Amino acid sequence: xxxxxxxxxxxxxxxxxSSGQFSASQLLEKAKTLGVCxxxxxxHSLTKALGIDLLAIPMDDNISGSLSAxxxxxxxLIKVNSLHHPNRQRFTIAHELGHYxxxxxxxxxxxxxxxxxxxxxxxxxxxxxxxxGDLLMPEDEFRLAVKSLSGSIEAVAQKFMVSTLAVRVRAxxxxxxxxxxx
Length: 182
Description:
By secondary structure, the chain is an alpha+beta fold. It contains seven helices and six strands; from the N terminus they run E-H-H-E-E-E-H-E-H-H-H-H-E. It has helices at residues 24-33, 43-49, 86-103, 123-136, 139-148, 153-160, 164-173; strands at residues 4-5, 53-57, 63-69, 76-81, 109-113, 177-178.
């Protein structure tokens, strides 16, 4: 069993910018007003409530998903690899929502390959990964879960319906240390 302990407290998520971008915490507030369950986040219902089309289809194993604008930006489509584990699909959908809320004015198509999940990521992939972590594992609830579940990475992952790797990355981003984080 793995454990996480608190090390330091980094700053909270960034607020909405003047360009109309939403932070993950603002999107969670919107989800609440839309009646979407937020713990664990019902990512499918949120995507639907936002009017973003979602399609789960088989893809090459090295492709996690994509976000594409329809012609003339008359809507957006998220595709997720149906062959991946459901928890990985959840993270991919949240990642694509990160692109939607942070980067849709920069480009119309995003294709996310597995190598973007590691340290080789570029700026927009790093931002989308951070957004996904913030969205699926909100800081206050995450810290509370770590404390109440005695820091068990497996139990925290199960609570938020994410992978243990996602828990480790989120804990590290929040300045927490422990097994597998140093």
